[in-house]
Amino acid sequence: MVTPHIPAYRNVVREVAKASVSPRATRNEAISRNFRDIFQKNIQDKQSETFHHDIQNAITFMRSQRLHKELLDRYNPLFDLTGEERIEATARRVGFNMPKTSTPPEEKSD
């Protein structure tokens, strides 16, 4: 009964690690501790099949979210830019450079 949960736990840990942007030493330990507690509590549960199905759905969701972000970064490089940066990048893409905006000179008061 424990056997299907071990690979599922490893897959959850693997997906959390791949989705994390911080190094392993600086990650919040509460997240991994909570996952470990959930698995330990549900190993002896009578609804083990339902738990395993729910965990597989969670793993699929985390994997899909990670792949979606990778595809957005690859095929839509303007995704994370501000509005002004997006306009400049679009102009460069078609061969133009945005004109430099000048600020009007300050008037001197005597």
Order of helices and strands: HHHH
By secondary-structure content and strand pairing, the structural class works out as mainly alpha
Q: How would you classify the quaternary structure?
A: single chain
Number of discrete domains = 1
Low-confidence stretches: none
Number of H- or I-type helical stretches = 4
Give the terminus-to-terminus CA distance.
88 Å
Summarize the amount of helix as a percent range.
Answer: 55-70%
**Average residue pLDDT:** 80
Q: Major sheet, described briefly?
A: none
GO cellular component, one term: mitochondrial matrix
InterPro entries: Fmc1
Pfam family, one: Complex1_LYR_2
Structure description:
This protein is mostly helical and 110 residues long. The protein has one domain (5-93). It has four helices and no strands. The protein has helices spanning 5-19, 29-43, 48-75, 83-93. Helix 1 (5-19) packs antiparallel against helix 2 and helix 1 runs parallel beside helix 3 (48-75). The relative contact order is 0.10.
